[in-house]
Amino acid sequence: MYVDSHCHLDFPDLIAREDEVIAAMHAAAVRHALCVSVKLEDFPRVLALAGRHPGLYASVGVHPDNDDCEEPDEARLVALADHPKVIAIGETGLDYHWQKDAPEWQRERFRTHIRAARRAGKPLIIHTREAAADTLRLMREERAEEAGGVMHCFTESQEVADAALALGFYISFSGIVTFKNARALKEVATRVPLDRLLIETDAPYLAPVPHRGRTNEPAYVVHVAEEIARLRGETLERIAQASTDNFFRLFRHAHPH
After folding, report:
1. Nearest CA to 58 among 76, 42, 73, 74?
2. Rounded mean pLDDT of the chain?
3. Most CB atoms within 10 A, among 51, 94, 191, 250?
4. 257: in domain
5. How far, CA to CA in Å, does 55 sit from each of 34, 47, 117, 189?
C-alpha cells in the first residue's frame, strides 16, 4: 500500500477527472492521499473532495506565493482545522523565487501558520524555495518542532535536510527525485533515515519518469517509491511500508482503513 502525502486533486485538470483519477489511484494500490489547500477561498472545495472519498484527507492553509487572496489569521486556521478530515496546517513556508524582494508579509504569514499548528495540535506542511535559511530560522523562532511536520517536495541540500530532521520534521520526496539531473537530491534520498521519509506527487505538477511532462496524479507516486528503493538498495515493499507507516505516525489524525 502507498500513500500520496501531498497532492492538489481539487485543481481543475484533476477534479474534472475525479472518478478516473481515484480509480487509477486505487488500481495502483495508493490507498490514501492528502489534498493540500493553497487558498482559504478554495478550502471548502478541498474539504468536500476529501469528504467524498474515505482514503482522502485535507489540509488548511495559504501557499506563500499567493498574495491575491484572503489572508489567514491564527484563529481562523485553528477553527478550520477543527474537522476530522483536516489532518494538517499548510501548505505554508517561504518562496523567494517569484517574490524576489523576500517580503515581510510572507514571513509573517508563515509565523501565523506555525502558531496555528501548535494551537491546533496538527502538523505543518512546509514549502521552501530559495529561502532555506529564513525558513529554518522562523521554524526555530516559532518553535515549529512543537507541531512537527514535513518539508514537502524537498529539493534542498543535505545540510538543510539535517537541520529539519533535527527539529523532528519528516522529508518528502516528489517526482523530482526520478529526474536524471537531480543528482544531489538522489544522494539526499539515500541518507534520510527510513523512519522520516515520505513520498508524494505534488499533482498535478512534477510527474515522475516515465510520465514526465504529463499531468501528474496520485497513482504515479509508485514511481517515486521505486526510484527511492533503487537508490537505497531496498525492496520496493520496504519503502512502501515505511513511507505509509511514517505518514500515519506524522499525521496522527488520519486513520488507515
Report:
1. 42
2. 97
3. 94
4. no
5. 9, 13, 23, 26
Helices (H) and strands (E) in the chain, counts: 10, 8
Which residue reads 476530522 in cell numbers?
A: 84
CATH (domain of 94):
3.20.20.140
Q: How many CA atoms, within 13 angstroms, populate the side-chain half-sphere of residue 227?
A: 25
Per the domain annotation, does 160 fall within a domain? Answer: yes
Would you give the DSSP letter of residue 178?
A: G
Residue 47 located in a structural domain: yes
> For residue range 161-211, what is the model confidence (pLDDT) as tens digits?
999 999 999 999 999 999 999 999 999 999 999 999 999 999 999 999 999
Domain of residue 85 covers: 2-250
Longest Cα pair distance anywhere in the chain, in angstroms? 46
Q: How far apart are CA 149 and CA 170, in angstroms?
A: 6
Q: Does 213 map to a domain?
A: yes
Taking only the tens place, the pLDDT of each residue in 43-63 is 999 999 999 999 999 999 999
